[in-house]
Amino acid sequence: MLQNNGRSLHNFVSMPYPSNIVVEDVGQRLIVEELNYDRNEMSEYLDQCLSSITDEQRHVYDKIINAVYGNKGGFFFLYGYGGTGKTFVWKTLSASIRSRGDIVLNVASSGIAALLLPGGRTAHSRFKIPIPITEDSTCNIKHNSPHAKLLIKAKLIIWDEAPMMSKWCYEALDKCLRDILRFTPGYDSSLPFGGKVVVLGGDFRQILPVIPRASREDVISATINSSYLWPFCEVLCLTKNMRLLQGSSCSSASDIAEFSEWLLTIGDGKVGQPVNGESEIQIPDEILIKNSETGFEDLVNFTYPDLLRNMSNSEYFRERSILAPTIELVGKVNDYMMSRVSAEEREYLSSDSIYKEDGNVESELDAFSPEVLNAMNCSGLPPHKLSLKIGVPVILMRNIDQSNGLCNGTRLTVKRFGDHVIQCTVLTGTKAGSTVLIPRMTMNTNNTNLPFQFQRRQLPICVCFGMTINKAQGQTLGCVGLYLPRPVFSHGQLYVALSRVKSKQGLRILIENHDDLPSNTTINAVYEEVFDNITP
User: Fold this and answer.
1) Can you tell me the distance from the alpha carbon of 108 to that of 207, in angstroms, rounded to the nearest whole number?
2) Domain of 407, in residue numbers
3) Is residue 421 within a helix (H) or strand (E), and if so which, with residue range?
4) Fewest Cβ atoms closer than 10 Å to its Cβ: which of 309, 325, 352, 395?
5) Is residue 21 pLDDT above 60, yes or no?
6) Domain end: 237, 271, 298, which one?
7) What is the pLDDT of residue 155?
């Protein structure tokens, strides 16, 4: 208010004035947000974590903390499959850094993974990584900007689910940090990221960077361990399955251990005879749906038992979903499930238009009528005609408010309809159970296959009784139905689909139309080359 009137506290002699350091930080909203925590609370939480930490996790923790406060820089990769405690290590490191009054930046490659981190954000939003990205790209962060000052102050950068993003994203951050840190104490041009401590995490058994129309060699070349940064990276491993240590009984722990070992053999490509990155694997009878005539109905009834009686129960939808390899198959699942819901239906129609870019003449713009644009269904965009019913689960397709858990991949249930907004209940993340309003948004296409780009104004959601396997990465579910009318087609897809559950009791698989393969056999795609240089 004083600034708006051209005045400050200096105009009032009797008013105390904060130190210059405090004033400088208060003027930086991003820095204030990252320092908005109770150091005593962080210290208490750190003590709790350290009291239950394993020797393996303690080694990782000590290694990284020593690098942070040894002022020698460091680049690490924490390699571990689901259940080994990577998220626990991230939280312990964050509490340690914050208990000392310093800043740690927690980011992830997906919105869902970001919600599991303390103060987590997606890497694209935090580091302003351009879309699409190229080999020459750098982060859109300028000198002396709020984002630049935040990066300078950060003691540690944690980046989860790293293998699923292109190496160019990490190289863009490297170039950006070298640029903004070159005039700061501690800068070392010989070190990656200008001497800033950066820790990546993830599992190379999972889905690798998605590149349209890419060959196997293109995908391998795009992974982080093919980057010029990788020779500087120290690999740290977590191998103990923490879920086994928390088992309620010896029998359940034994089942989890057996299931976990089976998943790892699939993820490593050690099941079946590999041929050109693919192998045939046999599905155990206890998780296979065998009846070909009623198979799809059996899969639905297993995943969503007593659907109509649970439509008003948000907890019911939180831990269950049907997964499939492609968007088309997911659409079939969602259409069928919507037909089983007897509630009143509401349709929302989008408003579509072409970008009026420089160089486009009116005749080119007029060639594509609204009807033509309405008929287009592009990945990452909701449909033109969005049909919804009260109680159905939906999934967000854009980052709306990450601090409140509304990011790309957040699942919700529909509660009320408005003309231009709907009311939903959040199903996943730290804000589960909260009520939110989802408005219409203008969303742009990034489809390079089209001869033009267009924008669609629509609710940024789609129905999600079913999800693609890629979309499910990073989510933990209690009940999964895997629908495979065609085999998986990319590295890690089968492993990701099967590993969304903690035990085989929560998993059923329906296999259809797999050519000459036996009825209980499917294809597993694993690119063995990606494992070549990730050993500690």
Assistant:
1) 15
2) 331-467
3) strand 421-426
4) 309
5) no
6) 237
7) 94
